[in-house]
Amino acid sequence: MPFFPFYLDPTFILIIIGMIISGSASMYVQSTYRKYGEVNSKNGYTASDVCRKILDAAHLENVRLEGIRGNLTDHYNAQENVLRLSDTTRNSKSVAAIGVAAHEAGHALQDRDNYGPLRIRSALVPVTNFGQTAAFPILFLGFILGEGGTMLINIGILLFSLTLLFQLVTLPVEFNASNRAIQILETQGLLSREEIPQARKVLNAAALTYIAAAIASFLSLLRLILIFSGRSRD
């Protein structure tokens, strides 16, 4: 397989497939969040209330709650010991917002418990960032050098594969946080029996975005392998 510019490269279809999968997952989570964002919890708690209750019950009073701009930009930062809830989440009483807030609290509990996959993911952040930055310059240099650049091409592909590794490690971290969230919401009575399945649907939809990201990373990696293995045969 010759090395074509991307607009002539038949393997570019893999990128398109990845974009479609990622876009579909994103639209699904947005529509699911909007649906259950209109359903207010019977208990009358805001997402911030629920988050604080979960953290305090877990003896994590030292974890600060802060706001952050945006939509679904909620996250837990272990380095700063802070949990940030987005504009659309923190003051909402909806089942969707409470589910998202409980999910982020689940990450704080993972941090407290030294949850293995979370530690591995944290350790992978700097090397993954380096891989994303260095992979394509190294691949380009290897391509320019021709046959003498085979080792550089292999190094570039290896660096790019760190993104896929990171995405795969992220999956158990996110699934576990969601499972913790649902269990806590149920056992602490923070959502009613009827509302638990609704919150689960929101978190399951969010999980699809991580699966889609892993699939897209795999397809991108596969494309690079096909391009450069074809080039070496030529």
Descriptive labels:
234 residues; mainly alpha; 3-stranded mixed β-sheet; disordered N terminus
Detailed description of the structure:
There is one protein chain. The protein contains six helices and three strands. By secondary structure, it is mainly α. A three-stranded mixed sheet has the order 1-3-2, with helices on one face. The protein starts with 11 loop residues before the first helix and ends with a helix. 36% of the residues are buried.
Short characterization:
The protein is mainly α and 234 residues long. The chain has six helices and three strands.
Shape: elongated
Ranges where pLDDT stays below 50 over 5 or more residues in a row are 1-6
Radius of gyration: 21 Å
How much helix is in the residues? 55-70%
Q: What is the total tally of β strands?
A: 3
Question: What do the pLDDT scores average to?
Answer: 92
- Widest β-sheet, arrangement of strands: 1-3-2
Q: Give the biggest beta sheet.
A: 3 strands, mixed
Instruction: Note the run of SSEs as H and E.
Output: HHEEEHHHH
Secondary structure category: mainly alpha
Strand content: 5-15%
Summarize the SSE layout with pairings:
Elements: H1 12-37, H2 47-57, E1 64-68, E2 75-77, E3 82-86, H3 95-112, H4 116-144, H5 150-187, H6 196-233
Parallel strand pairs: 1-3
Antiparallel strand pairs: 2-3
Helix pairs in contact: 1-6, 2-3, 3-5, 3-6, 4-5, 5-6
